[in-house]
Amino acid sequence: MTEIDDADRSALKAAGLRVTEQRLAVLRALDGSPHASSDEVHARVVEVLPRTALQAVYVVLAALTGAGLVRRIEPAGSPARYEKRLGDNHHHVVCTVCGSVSDVDCVVGHAPCLTPSNDAGYVVQTAEVTFWGLCPRCAAGDDEAVDETADALADEPEVVVAR
Question: Is the model's pLDDT at 8 over the cut of 90?
């Protein structure tokens, strides 16, 4: 057992969740792949627990998110992504070509980083900012990154709306 496994076991117990192999595998997958979609987490989990269904990964991610052990981010036009980096009010930058996501530390000042001009009476606890642009690979014109994105989009099911 590794230090990370011990920390994950302790975190699960502290959150009132049972320690299961699936939960540990999902947490390990997020250690190795921050900003992973549920499909990406599932692909990593089945490497160690081959009989794990995608639905089980959805359930585990929901439980971990609800317990505050995982953060769910939802960049526009992208599937939900999950990460273990919590509590520091960081932001994200998303590539508009390939969809890669990277962390951006707090922009200016102390958390929540931004002060709204009108808070409508709310007590602001966090601010979430998403920056959009080109990742280094796409900015450099890396055709492989563009091809990977095109392949991924081709695999998406077509949605037809009946009128």
Answer: yes
pLDDT at 104 over 90: no
Helix, strand, coil percent content, the chain, rounded in steps of 5: 40, 15, 45
Residue 139 near residue 93, CB atoms below 8 Å: no
Q: What token pair was written down for 104?
A: 């951006």
Closest CA to 140 of 95, 74, 110: 95
CB atoms within 10 A of CB 130: 15
Q: How many whole angstroms separate alpha carbon 55 and alpha carbon 39?
A: 10
Which CATH number do you get for residue 48?
A: 1.10.10.10
Residue range(s) defining the domain that contains residue 137: 87-155
Whole-number Å distance between alpha carbons of 9 and 64? 12
Percentage of the chain beyond pLDDT 90 is 51
Nearby residues of 129 by Cβ (< 8 Å), 6 or more positions away: 91, 92, 104, 107, 113, 114
In the chain, the number of structural domains is: 2
Report how many helices (DSSP H) and strands (DSSP E) the chain contains, helices first.
6, 6
**Range 105-132 average pLDDT:** 77
